[in-house]
From TrEMBL:
Binding site for Mg(2+): D442, N469, G471
Protein's UniProt name: pyruvate decarboxylase
Domain Thiamine pyrophosphate enzyme N-terminal TPP-binding: residue ranges: 4-109
Keyword field: Decarboxylase, Lyase, Magnesium, Metal-binding, Pyruvate, Thiamine pyrophosphate
Organism: Komagataeibacter diospyri
Record's catalysed reaction(s): a 2-oxocarboxylate + H(+) = an aldehyde + CO2
Residue ranges occupied by any Thiamine pyrophosphate enzyme TPP-binding domain in the UniProt entry: 404-535
Cofactor: Mg(2+); thiamine diphosphate
Similarity-based family: Belongs to the TPP enzyme family.
């Protein structure tokens, strides 16, 4: 058998740990898909459309470290590129692979189908360059190994998406076999001199403070530093808070954990202890309008030390070219044997409000959000992953108490409603051994609902809580109008549509606590496919945090143009 460009790409994907890739077929990628099917241990998983294909690969990357989506030119790729923007925002190495026009047509003046009708097909590569860390176009087999390796290596290093387009007549061309994976997995080491100085500066920053606190941000997983952060917390002895988008990136049963720091909508006691601290070690934070609650909670200034993935800034000095894991390890070694800086933890234990008991609703009363959240909380195990969609699902997820090992997946930087349906699918493909729970608003679900059919197809026992509050409640709280009302669907009834003649998905509608409990029991018992539980609640029945946060974000949005 001839070894081809498509084989090379597929083998590299397998070498970096992919067991699956997501695809939608089209004539520009059919031959490539044939080649990929021939790679041992690499399964081809199909999606209903390319936006979902991109988000499926994104969800897969969350569970598996990297993902890949294969689409056709323009009509497919331009949809997938939205999800690739999301992967960039969320720091996930997703490889987008697009079939492309025949190499003989490039520069020929020919007008081809699936293009904008001009003979220049370069626009897709140009767009991809803006949304990825590496974008390459392969129009000859000779260039393929170098270009493929460049794209994949850069994506893995940067934890950002990459783009590879392959002319449709090139993927079956002969190509050398790839060498060992080390060539694309190896990373440049930290600069030793910079590393030492960065650690010195951080140690000085800590030494000069009596009441430091740690704040964990959303790029900690991409930095590969979740375990290191726990050891740093153990060494320092101070309070640890997580940013909203970093929910589950630090164990919630850790004695130093004080919950989410999110300005006015922080966990009880977290904002107070944060404000009491005299120095903040910020690990991989992303400060945007949402995470700072409309710029009202933005840690800055001399009392903030930034510990980013490759960059440290403290004491008025900045250091680049160092890996966070090396910095943390060095800092731990430096702090060993020194007295603990545990003032914030001592104080937090004093001021922490007692936990309010969770009320159980009357089982026959109309379902309310709080009862819905209580019942979902009861499902969380150490092998659970909760995928929470944009909307009040964010705030419901934030209030959950996670057993050690439980994960929450959020897409707070990109915030594409509908992300969670395909992302849950991709996540479930990557981690079939976990209990996977999705919390999705009705408005979000309507964007990408059809991907539930793929969960049916692959018999994935995902549990979907579809919150039917008759509209875009998050937007109602920020700025209301007729555009926040949506057409109601028979969401539970959709499962029959997706099952067709061979599926085993189940759909239930819950209008009371008792109905929800019954539906959950059936969902847990269903191992042959997804279960969608439509939770019917009032349009204004949302978390109080959503209301407070929404008001602050709306205020930030409404700032008038500055007078210049
Ligand atoms: C692709 C996309 N389009 C529009 C928006 C704006 N948007 C943000 S949240 C939201 C409504 C979400 O409604 P739903 O899923 O029902 O959640 P709820 O707020 O009701 O909990 C919309 C339209 C978006 N974030 N992404
Ligand atoms: Mg809604």
């Amino acid at each position: 058998m001839t070894y081809t460009v498509g084989h090379y790409l597929g083998e590299r994907l397998a070498q970096i740990g992919l067991k699956d890739h997501f695809a939608v077929a089209g004539d520009y990628n059919l031959v490539l898909l044939d080649q990929l099917l021939e790679i041992d241990g690499l399964r081809q998983v199909y999606c209903c459309n390319e936006l979902n294909c991109g988000f499926s690969a994104e969800g897969y990357a969350r569970a598996n470290g990297a993902g890949a989506a294969v689409v056709t030119f323009s009509v497919g790729a331009l949809s997938a590129l939205n999800a690739i923007g999301g992967a960039y925002a969320e720091n996930l190495p997703v490889i987008l692979i697009s079939g492309a026009p025949n190499s003989n047509d490039h520069g020929s003046g020919h007008i081809l189908h699936h293009t904008i009708g001009t003979p220049d097909y370069g626009y897709q590569l140009e767009i991809a360059k803006r949304l990825t860390c590496a974008a390459v176009s392969i129009t000859s087999a000779g260039d393929a190994p170098v270009l493929i390796d460049h794209a994949i290596r850069t994506a893995l290093r940067e934890k950002k998406p990459a783009y590879i387009e392959i002319a449709c007549n090139v993927s079956s061309q002969p190509c050398p076999r790839p060498g060992p994976a080390g060539a694309i997995l190896a990373d440049a080491p930290s600069d030793p001199d910079t590393l030492k100085l960065a650690i010195d500066e951080l140690a000085d920053f800590i030494a000069a403070r009596r009441k430091p606190i740690m704040l964990v941000g959303s790029r900690l997983r991409a930095a590969g530093c979740e375990d290191a952060a726990i050891r740093l917390a153990d060494t320092l002895g101070c309070v640890v808070t997580t940013m909203a988008a970093a929910k589950s990136f630090f164990p919630e049963d850790h004695p130093a954990y004080a919950g989410t720091y999110w300005g006015d909508v922080s966990s009880p006691g977290a904002q107070q202890i944060f404000d009491w601290a005299d120095g903040v070690l910020c690990l991989t934070p992303v400060f945007n309008d949402y995470s700072t609650v409309g710029w009202t909670a933005w840690p800055r200034g001399d009392n903030v030390a930034l510990m980013d993935t490759r960059h440290i800034a403290a004491g008025g000095k900045a250091f680049d070219g160092v890996h966070l894991r090396d910095v943390i390890e060095g800092l731990i070694a430096r702090l060993k044997g020194q007295p603990k800086k545990d003032a914030t933890l001592v104080e937090y234990r004093r001021i922490k409000p007692p936990e309010a008991p969770v009320a159980v609703a009357d089982p026959s009363a109309p379902l309310v959000r709080a009862e819905m959240a209580r019942q979902i909380q009861g499902l969380l195990t150490s092998d659970t992953s909760v995928i929470a969609e944009t909307g009040d699902s964010w705030f419901n997820a934030m209030q959950m108490k996670l057993p050690r090992g439980a994960r929450v997946e959020l897409e707070m930087q990109w915030g594409h409603i509908g992300w969670s349906v395909p992302a849950t699918f991709g996540y479930a493909v990557a981690a079939p051994e976990r209990r996977i729970i999705a919390m999705i608003g009705d408005g979000s679900f309507q964007l990408t609902a059809q991907e539930v059919a793929q969960m049916v197809r692959l018999k994935l026992p995902v549990i979907i809580f579809l919150v039917n509050n008759r509209g875009y409640t998050i937007e109602v709280q920020i700025h209301d109008g007729p555009y926040n009302n949506i057409k109601n669907w028979d969401y539970a009834g959709l499962m029959n549509v997706f099952n067709a003649e061979d599926g085993h998905g189940k759909g239930f509608r819950a209008t009371t606590g008792a109905e929800m409990e019954k539906a959950i029991a059936a969902a847990v018992a269903n191992k042959e496919g997804p279960t969608l539980i439509e939770c019917v609640i009032d349009r204004d029945d949302c978390t109080s945090d959503l209301i407070s946060w929404g008001r602050r974000v709306a205020t930030a949005n409404a700032r008038p143009p500055a007078v210049r």
